[in-house]
Amino acid sequence: MSVTATALQSVAYAVAGAVASYFAFVALLTVPFVQNQVIYLNNVTLTWFKDVNYPEQWGFLHNQVTPFHLRTGDGETLHAWHILPPGLWQQHAEELIQEPAGLTPDITARKSFELLRDDPDALLVLYFHGAAGTLGSGHRPPSYKAIYGMEPNRIHTVAIDYRGFGTSTGSPSEQGLKTDALTLARWAMNEAKIPPERIVLFGQSLGTAVAVYMANHYAKLPEPVHFSGLVLVAPFADVELLTATYRVAGTIPLLEPVAKFPKLLAYLNRFIRDKWPTKDRLAEFIRLHEEASSGSSGSPRPGYWVSILHGEDDYDIPWAHSEQLFWHAVNATEPAGISFEELEKEKPESRVDMGAGGWAVERRTARGLVKEQILKNGLHDRIMGYPAVSLAIYGAFHHGREPR
Ligand SMILES: *[C@@H]1O[C@H](CO)[C@@H](O)[C@H](O)[C@H]1NC(C)=O
Ligand SMILES: *[C@@H]1O[C@H](CO)[C@@H](O)[C@H](O)[C@H]1NC(C)=O
């Protein structure tokens, strides 16, 4: 009798202890420093013992990639890679091989830069990577190679390590990453002199939030700037939904127990510093274009082109985030709006079924296109190297324009 009581008592203590440590952990999430470790993971570099100034280590041709520095207006130094497409490298191999390797003190003096700036047909992808790691980690190098896949003489990529990542200075924050993105865009348009119609913004995971911010920021300027397109791989709707669905190491649902109590979740979300409201920014971006077309004054804006791709087996960020984003985007094309359920009913009309390859739906208006493509496989990162992504980038460059 008393033995059972003692046993029950220890079980009760164990349960109480577990519950208490869970809540202590949830409380810890309200601390900005801890949030940064969850959202940005910039201290996990994943390219330990490798010098990110020698990209040949990740399978690039000699001097195919030029590492250089960008300076932000608020005094940070960002590490960047300019990746030449291999067809172009081959045409100029002799000259490129003779140039000094490693970090260049002056990118404008390099042959690769000249090949970008002086070619009126050059296309440029501005690349915003996900959380953790550096320019050289994981599936990023294969991803750069997939990007130029469709046009190996033409598509250049410039990728950056945000502040606090890799060898870039500073530490990350939403404001900081926005500044970093704008610094890259200004470099592309003012230094490399690539007009926005020849620029596509690419983001994966955290990078999708940066890319959407940037597209919207430029579309809202008094003199709007419109990039050719936006390709978003494994995006998240906003940080609020991200924390609610986040799983540690892809398995332990962090806040799902809390998410069952919307009021508690909303309370916790008040403490989140960096909100990255991508779904709202994307909707605003699309509304700007849609409303401009029906307006009477001024010239119509160039069309928007947004491609969202997600793996059904992505356990870092569930593909439900892409469903949310697509819905908010489509909702912004309808003056009276559309509910999530109504949209689900309409989806079969435009749905293209690709069997084991997944499926795609799109919404096309007179002003632009938003497309959602769900691949059966691809996980969170591997998908970036898939031909579906190469094709999405190709499409983002060539809508309303004849391929060369
Ligand atoms: C983690 O990153 C921050 C920048 O965000 C840096 O100041 C700090 O030194 C890094 N810590 C470690 C242990 O690398
Ligand atoms: C959908 O669009 C309508 C009309 O613009 C708007 O009133 C509504 O807030 C939007 N819904 C969401 C969830 O953003």
TrEMBL record:
Superkingdom field: Eukaryota
Keywords in alphabetical order: Membrane, Transmembrane, Transmembrane helix
Domain AB hydrolase-1, residue spans: 125-239
A matching Pfam family: Abhydrolase_1
Spans through the membrane: 12-34
UniProt-recorded name of the protein: Monoacylglycerol lipase ABHD12-like protein
Source species: Hapsidospora chrysogenum (strain ATCC 11550 / CBS 779.69 / DSM 880 / IAM 14645 / JCM 23072 / IMI 49137) (Acremonium chrysogenum)
